[in-house]
Design brief:
heterodimer, A: 440 residues, mainly alpha, 19 helices, B: 498 residues, Formate dehydrogenase/DMSO reductase fold, 2 strands
């Protein structure tokens, strides 16, 4: 943290290796939360009375963690594609976050099965009925669905969007489900491997190749986030749509993952790691990006809300209508204040961004608000979809906490365990010294 | 040779840094930079300047004639008739406002993100903003019919106690654009102050010296001056950035708040902003590549600058492509027959589908050539793509506005729009007006921020040369060859750390 120029000889040979034993308490805590959460989740899944509500809990927990994985991939893609240097010292931590796409995919697998997704996605139930009719009458699912829509006009939109929203063609919801995790995992693994190779031979070509790879995969990444958001959240109400939806979810991904990185870097520094490579300038930069995405999220969220409110078209307003009813209304107001106004005001100040304790408190708040935002996006659909005569399903919040513990606890455990496998930063990256000595 | 050296160095287990490319070539000194940029203002203008200036003045005159004709005859001289009540006028307004937004956005956002390469292009981009917003403002002002009553748009109490409709995005546009123009002009002028003082100090006594003296506000280059200047500049950059976003978002609200199929899309605000950055960078390159050539600014506007801007055009073009695709996808996914029909008419079987293909081709496909490094450093290729983008951004607005209205919700009144000669000549005239202003800017004001560009030279870096690491240039490490024709005299300069 000194002001003198740090050179390569000032750094430990081979970078810094994380010793899991030093973080045994936190790893143990995550492991315990994950283990107990999975046991609890098994109970909720296997019990037919709790399964419908718990399906939403699981989707909420999976999607919450999915946004961090997407954020990890986004930051490494952006960092490489923009040829920037400042983040070299923290990039490995993002790479490890992106790599969690694969275990997250395994945890998300219950969503693929009928006993779970039949409570989440009404359209799937209609398709299943159509598939049964199709098998009976030796016709196609699309034709059977069309036939059903003649009797029930509410199904007509499903006929219109059959090409995308289906589970019976090669381009099905299930195929895409697998592809999303595959794409994210591929991006994160490939980029991390390039820099691990560089640690062996020191060749600059790996940096250049990583940049080229990042440029090429930015667009598939954008499509992945967009369509995952469409399939998993927008699909909860198959009549609702918004062209902004993918951008809205993306804004939350970038925002929350940067907050997580601030917490992680501070934790590692507290254990004695990264002392020579991460400076207050990095905190300032991360704080500025957190601020930028606070504003970006607000801009996107406001634009979406405002245009839907102003135009007042029933098929669009339903989304906000159920989130502006009874108790959810206060959550909506809380999100406006907590997700935008509070962090915006606090992050305006430069000294606060350079103070690790303050910025970590803000980062913690950001993650909490992101949690509320994802909860607000998923859970209000639960009561009306399950036919409960209230805005909330009684006692379902227990399942929400259990699911969150199961998914976040397991991923946290795996993440911290995996940190020890390689150096905490790319110690032979040709931009490392530039990164350490960054001034802004 | 360098590649071999660096390879052996890497294998030895040591550390090799990747040097940044220099932002000023040939190790140019401070005095060279001052002389070269001030020389543009102080010397007689080259032949190329006159070749551009005279036609620009003529076109400005034609534009003025068209407006006089419109006032004398009525707005009917433009081609819009029911149901296409907005046509070239609003298309041109959004086109110019998009370019107008990009300049300050480029300057302010690149400043806030500490992109040092901005110094060579920010001044011209800011100037472009001012002139483009002036061009944009002409269209709605004359579209009101009685242009002398345009002050009714301002919320000033008048004799009839008529107030504006504050619920209308069109009125928000008035506030947003006028605020933006004011802040952009101040931002541009503030950046000019130190350079105006430089020109003042170099001038012989006379009216020029007096004018530069007045506008340089007594600047002496003292530490206090610089300190206040830098604080003010950063604050204005921070103020400009949300303003830019808000203005083009408000322009998008003109359409998106409606329930017209094809206009009501929640993605419009960021989509319009991305389009503005895209079109703005294309226009900056369109202006700066000839300026670089005419005034010999190859050492200040380097292949690196052009490469960076080409990459941004590629990125933003792809973002715009994402927005086009998302609109189409949601028209399908939303299963609203009117929305879907609008997009089918736009892109598949309507009377103006070729505009849609032109838009998609120019804005999404043409920039894809920039995936190839050689194309990003080939000035002819860059200019051609920029021309495509300039045209494509106009087509985009035409597609959104005109092709939607041509096939609106009442098929009985469908009508294909045909532009009149007044539409066409007025629009071409605004290019003359824009160019005339830009050329006068070149004539009287420094086109590159002298003080700022000096700050990115090695001589301005107190820590230059402190690094102990062996460093290589990317092209040397990878064995790339930048075309020699890109450099002045066809000779690649020696690399220096920026």
């Amino acid at each position: 943290m000194s002001d003198h120029h740090v050179s390569f000889k000032d750094l430990p040979a081979g970078g810094e290796k994380f010793e899991p034993a030093k973080a045994s308490k936190l790893i143990g805590l995550f492991g315990a939360l994950g283990g107990l959460g999975i046991l609890g989740s098994l109970y909720f899944f296997l019990n037919s009375a709790t399964r419908p509500a718990f399906s939403y809990s699981w989707l909420f927990a999976i999607f919450f963690c999915f946004t961090f994985v997407c954020g990890g991939c986004f930051w490494i893609l952006l960092h490489n594609a923009s040829n920037s240097s400042w983040g070299v010292v923290i990039r490995r931590l993002f790479e490890n976050l992106g790599v969690l796409a694969i275990p997250l995919g395994l945890l998300a697998a219950p969503l693929l099965f009928k006993p779970v997704n039949e409570h989440l996605y009404e359209w799937m139930n209609h398709h299943r009925t159509a598939a049964a009719h199709a098998a009976e009458h030796h016709t196609t699912v699309a034709e059977a669905l069309h036939h059903m829509s003649l009797e029930n006009p509410h199904l007509h939109p499903l006929v219109e969007k059959f090409g995308y929203l289906n589970n019976s063609t090669w381009f099905s919801w299930t195929t895409r489900f697998v592809a999303y995790f595959g794409i994210l995992g591929f991006i994160a693994f490939t980029l991390r491997n390039k820099f691990l190779c560089q640690e062996k031979d020191g060749a600059i070509k790996h940096t250049i190749r990583a940049r080229q790879f990042a440029c090429i995969t930015l667009f598939p990444f954008a499509l992945t986030v967009t369509f995952a958001a469409v399939d998993w959240l927008m699909g909860l109400d198959y009549l609702w749509f918004s062209t902004m939806w993918g951008v809205y979810i993306f804004a939350g991904c970038a925002w929350s993952s940067m907050a997580l990185m601030l917490l992680l870097v501070s934790y590692l520094r507290g254990l004695g790691y990264l002392q020579k490579v991460v400076t207050m300038e990095h905190y300032h930069l991360m704080g500025k990006l957190l601020f930028a995405f606070t504003v970006f999220w607000a801009y996107i969220a406001f634009s979406q809300y405002f245009l839907i409110w102003y135009a007042n078209i029933p098929e669009e307003t339903r989304f906000y209508f159920i989130r502006n009813t009874e108790g959810w209304r206060w959550v909506s107001i809380f999100i406006v204040i907590g997700h935008f106004i509070a962090p915006f005001v606090v992050l305006l100040s430069q000294p606060r961004k350079k103070n690790p304790k303050v910025i970590c408190a803000i980062a913690l708040w950001v993650i909490l608000m992101h949690l509320v935002d994802i909860y607000w996006n998923v859970v209000p659909e639960r009561a009306p979809s399950l036919g409960v005569d209230s805005v909330l399903v009684p006692n379902a919040w227990v399942g929400d906490i259990v699911a969150l513990c199961a998914v976040a606890g397991t991923l946290g455990y795996l993440y911290l365990r995996s940190l020890g496998a390689n150096s905490l930063y790319a110690w032979r990256d040709p931009r490392l010294i530039e990164s350490i000595n960054v001034k802004n | 040779m360098a590649a071999t050296e660096s390879a052996s160095h890497q294998d030895s287990g040591a550390y090799t840094a990747l040097d940044r490319e220099p932002l000023v070539l040939n190790n140019r000194s401070f005095s060279w930079i001052t002389n070269r940029i001030c020389g543009i203002v102080e010397n007689k203008q080259p032949f190329g300047w006159w070749v551009l200036f005279i036609p620009s003045v003529i076109l400005t005159g034609i534009m003025a004639f068209c407006f006089v004709y419109l006032i004398a005859t009525g707005v009917g001289v433009w081609g819009q008739k029911q149901p296409v009540d907005w046509a070239w006028d609003i298309t041109n307004f959004v086109f110019w406002i998009g370019i107008g937004h990009a300049g300050t956005l480029i300057s302010a956002i690149l400043f806030l993100t500490r992109q040092r390469w901005r110094t060579s292009v920010n001044r011209a981009a800011e100037a472009m903003t001012i002139f483009a917003v002036m061009c944009a403002g002409l269209f709605p002002a004359f579209h009101v019919g009685r242009v002398w009553m345009v002050w009714f748009l301002a919320p000033i109490p008048n004799a009839n106690a008529i107030w504006q409709n504050f619920k209308s995005p069109l009125l928000w546009d008035v506030f947003a654009v006028s605020t933006y123009f004011t802040v952009s002009a101040i931002f541009w002028y503030l950046g000019l102050v130190p350079d105006l003082a430089t020109l003042r100090d170099r001038c012989k006594p006379g009216i020029r010296k007096m004018m530069y003296g007045i506008f340089s506000l007594g600047w002496r280059g003292a530490n206090r001056h610089w300190s206040h200047y830098e604080t003010a500049y950063m604050l204005l950059a921070a103020l400009s950035t949300p303003l830019v976003l808000s203005v083009h978002s408000v322009v998008s609200f003109d359409f998106a708040t409606s329930v017209v199929p094809g206009w009501h899309a929640t993605i419009f605000p960021p989509y319009f902003v991305a389009g503005a950055i895209f079109g703005g960078f294309a226009m900056v390159l369109t202006l700066m590549i000839p300026v670089r050539s005419i005034y010999g600014l190859h050492d200040l506007i380097t292949p690196k600058h052009i490469d960076n801007m080409a990459k941004i055009i590629l990125l933003t073009g792809t973002i715009v492509g994402y927005a086009y695709s998302m609109e189409f996808f949601m028209a399908y996914y939303g299963a609203n027959p009117f929305e879907l029909q609008t997009f089918k008419l736009r892109g598949l079987y309507g009377p103006s589908t070729w505009y849609y293909y032109a838009m998609f081709g120019c804005n999404v496909f043409a920039p894809q050539i920039f995936w190839i490094k050689k194309m990003r450093t080939n000035l002819i290729a860059v200019m051609i793509v920029c021309m495509f983008v300039n045209a494509g951004m106009w087509y985009e607005r035409y597609v959104i506005i005109v092709t939607t209205l041509e096939r609106h919700l009442t098929p009985g009144s469908w009508r294909v729009f045909h532009a009149t000669w007044v539409d066409i000549t007025t629009f071409i005239g605004t290019f003359g007006f824009f160019m005339m202003n830009f050329l006068l800017f070149l004539r009287f004001l420094p086109v590159i921020a002298i003080g700022e560009v000096k700050g990115v030279t090695p001589a301005a870096d107190p820590h230059a040369g402190e690094s102990h690491e062996h460093g290589v240039q990317e092209d040397d490490a990878m064995g790339y060859e930048t075309p020699a024709s890109t450099y002045p005299g066809g000779v690649k300069p020696a690399a220096t750390a920026a």
